[in-house]
Amino acid sequence: MSDRDVATQGPSGLSLFLYKTKKSFGTPMPYLAFVGIGLWLFTYWLLNEQLKISPFNKIPGPAEVLTEWFSQDPIWGTSLFTEDYWQNIKASCLRILIAFSLATGLGVPLGLFMGWSKKFKDYTFPVLELLRPIPILAWVPLSIVMFQSFEAPILFLATLASFFVTTLNTMLGVQSIDESYFRAAGCLGSKRRHVFIHVVLPGSLPFVFTGLQISIGVAWFSLVAAEMISGEFGLGYMINASYMVNKYVTMVMAMLTLGFVGWITSAMVRAAGSQMMQWREKALGQGGA
Amino acid sequence: MAQATPNTQKSKSRIGKLVSNVTFWRGVVAILVFLALWEIGAQWKGWFGYMMPFVGKVAPPTDVIAIWMEVGQQPGYWLSWWLSSVRVFVGFLAAMIIGIPFGLAMAVNKYFRGIFFPPFEILRPIPPLAWVPASIIFWPTTEMSIMFITFLGAFYTIVINVLGGARSIDVQYLRAAQSMGASQWDLFYKIILPGTLPSIFVGAAVGMGITWEVVLAGEMMSGGGQQGGGGLGFFIWGSYMGGVMDQVIVGMISIGVAGYISSSLIRYLGHVCMPWRRMF
Amino acid sequence: MNTASAQANSTSSADAATKGAISIRNVTKIYDPDGVNVLAVEDCSIEIAPGEVCMIVGPSGCGKTTLLNAIAGFHSITSGQIDLDGEMLCGPGKPLADQGADRVVVFQNGALFPWKTLADNVAYGPIVQGTMTKAEAYGKAVDMLAEAGLSGVAGKYPGEVSSGMARRAEIVRALINDPKVLLLDEPYRAMDALTKSIMHESLLEVYDRTKVTIFFITHDLEEAIFLGDRVIVMTTRPARTKKIVDVKIERPRDYRLLSSEEFRVLVEETKGAVHEEAVKAFEAGERELA
Ligand SMILES: Nc1ncnc2c1ncn2[C@@H]1O[C@H](COP(=O)(O)OP(=O)(O)OP(=O)(O)O)[C@@H](O)[C@H]1O
Ligand SMILES: [Mg+2]
């Protein structure tokens, strides 16, 4: 058969990346992005630091924030070169790591079983659906009373939020697996545990990772809220504490840092997903069936 | 053999109904067990003299229902419902009015997207709640700042969904319409807009959930505010400060119900607007 | 009763084959989703000899897949009995057959696990059944893929290869289990004519080598006659056998057969029967709508 010759090795990861980057510079997109971000910063600067128009000038402008951020000797006491900045980042990241791991460790198995066994779903899903509409923030007072410590309620809130998302998406993932894979596994002589390991688990991965993407965003969302309301460290705390003592520059710095760190964590989840789903990456990359 | 079918038909349809009920009854059992465990856990101290960890500090369901009956007669409680609903509604509506055209514009024009998408993507990872203090500084009244973060919460979700929905429209439709002589406006109005409708509704449903989440935070953090005041978030926070824990749970359930009603409403609207599609 | 004699056609293939006799006797299947009964198969009987290539054709929705699913153990039958080599698969007191690797299905849309490479897919059966170690299974998988002309793509994922290659790999995945019967449900439906003819040759080549019993559902009459020892034309729903066409054409066959007179005659003969049923099915559909 002539197909045998078709099978050559595909381009490696790095060269593909370089090729794509090079190709994208051939389009106007990167330049437009540059213009867009520049325009946005310029408007912000113009309204805020140049024209000093009323509500805009209440918030620190871009130049002020940037100089402070990179200053060795920050006016308001916090910058890239001070220890407390990094301490806050570290505190938040550690909490996210714990909460996200807990939520994934509990939510993925629970969701897998819920999708796999109708009976198990019948008994667990209603309780989950009963609790899910309650916003995470509404749990704040209750969690403080229940755990009576500083750290535990914060972790509880962030975990709870991402737990719901992960569980639900995992369950949907199992339910989305095409029936014919189960049948194929069955007629190849699989036992129930083989079906679980070789069909349920890999087949639900795409949904699981979509869920984890959302879940880590939700974890940050709740973590920030929890830290702002009760916390002694962390980026959410940094925002609220600087607001309380009118260090608005530090506050904006913390907000931007938060966005950046949050973005990195979700990029990490995405990368882990691509790593674990090579089969999907390759199929998409080749435009195959 | 064929004659036997009508008989089996009847008996089987009844069995079929019973089977579909099994799920329902299991759900009832699950919820009752959950409530019973909660009640027992919370009452353990009174009954057996030993405080259960975690659950022991929570008010039991019977207390919650009792106090709900009481609170339900106070106008302040219903005022909280009203205030929160208005904030959610205004923020949500603003997000729809600004978000949908913004998302559509990014979908149809690649230069517009090239310029506006990157700043949008830079700001998006900042959780809406991180904006609370900045928003309080910026806006003249607490009311407006709460509405602003409510808007922000729903805005990102709606824009992303509209953009994704409009861009996933099959190019073949566009080509087909173009080949039949459709103008740019026709393309937009007859194909892109209806094609995006499902994603708009999905975005709206998700956005609505976030909105309730955010409104609560805004109300809790602004401490009810001097001018703004009230709302279910403040109801919860005030009850907590006053040490009335069973009332905190009443607040939690109330806001859960409110959120559930609003997303059901969106789902219903989705059915009405798109009879050809079964959503969710 | 439409029982067909298995002896009638033991022309060329049955010489080597000793296993894989399927006996479908008076099988009836009634679906009832939410109490609405659909009589899909009624009192259907088919005898398939060991090593026979049995092609099933019939109007859309007549109950062909239902029959295949009953043999494979994907769903139950309402009455009747199905035996494999004299042992009951399903029948009175056991409406649902056990699924097993002695009857492997190749699906219409392909069901290679997209998350496993072709070699891993092929090696899957022996590994989960415990008949081979992982290394043995993998080695055999690679060998068998090479035999089917797929050596270069053994390490690729199904999404990376063409649908023709994927379908051939799926047949290899079935054959590695040394099944008694291969069940194929319109496996080449979505393919273009050229790919299809390559698929046919490759399947015939596999058959000549293994002499495995094949139960093959199709809508394509030329495909049916080109591949089969017997073509069974089903009636519209509920499915029964309407006509059985014996294809007494020598094996090995190749594409030149397609232009022979013998082939033409058989196609015409079958076409008449199928057309009659298709018209009935169409009119029944009109009645249901009215
Ligand atoms: N799970 C089911 N529940 C109810 N009715 C069903 C079910 N599966 C199939 N049917 C009905 O049974 C009849 C036979 O279906 P089957 O899939 O066996 O047909 P088929 O001959 O394979 O058709 P096609 O050629 O289109 O694949 C059809 O009318 C179909 O609507
Ligand atoms: Mg079929």
Radius of gyration of chain A: 24 Å
* End-to-end separation of chain C: 32 Å
What can be said about the biggest beta sheet of chain C? 6 strands, mixed
- Fraction of helical residues of chain A: over 70%
Uncertain runs of chain A with pLDDT below 50, 5 residues or more?
Answer: 1-11
Q: Number of domains in the coordinates of chain A?
A: 1
Percent in helix of chain C:
25-40%
Overall structural domain count of chain C: 2
Indicate the mean pLDDT of chain C.
Answer: 84
Bound molecules: adenosine-5'-triphosphate, magnesium ion
Radius of gyration of chain C, in Å, reads 19 Å
Largest sheet of chain A: none
User: What's the oligomerization state?
Assistant: heterotrimer
CATH architecture of chain A: Orthogonal Bundle
CATH class of the largest domain in chain C: Alpha Beta
The CATH topology annotation of chain A reads as MetI-like fold
**CATH superfamily descriptor of the largest domain in chain C:** P-loop containing nucleotide triphosphate hydrolases
Q: What global shape of chain A is seen?
A: globular
Number of helices of chain A: 13
List the helices and strands and how they pair.
The complex is a heterotrimer of chains A (289), B (280) and C (290).
Chain A: H1 3-6, H2 13-26, H3 29-50, H4 62-69, H5 83-116, H6 118-131, H7 140-147, H8 151-175, H9 179-187, H10 192-229, H11 235-244, H12 248-276, H13 278-286
Chain B: H1 5-48, H2 61-71, H3 75-108, H4 110-123, H5 132-138, H6 142-167, H7 171-179, H8 184-221, H9 232-241, H10 245-273
Chain C: E1 22-31, E2 38-48, E3 53-57, H1 64-72, E4 79-84, E5 87-90, E6 103-106, H2 118-129, H3 134-147, H4 163-175, E7 181-185, H5 193-210, E8 213-217, H6 221-227, E9 230-234, E10 241-246, H7 261-289
The site of magnesium ion has 3 residues of chain C, from α1.
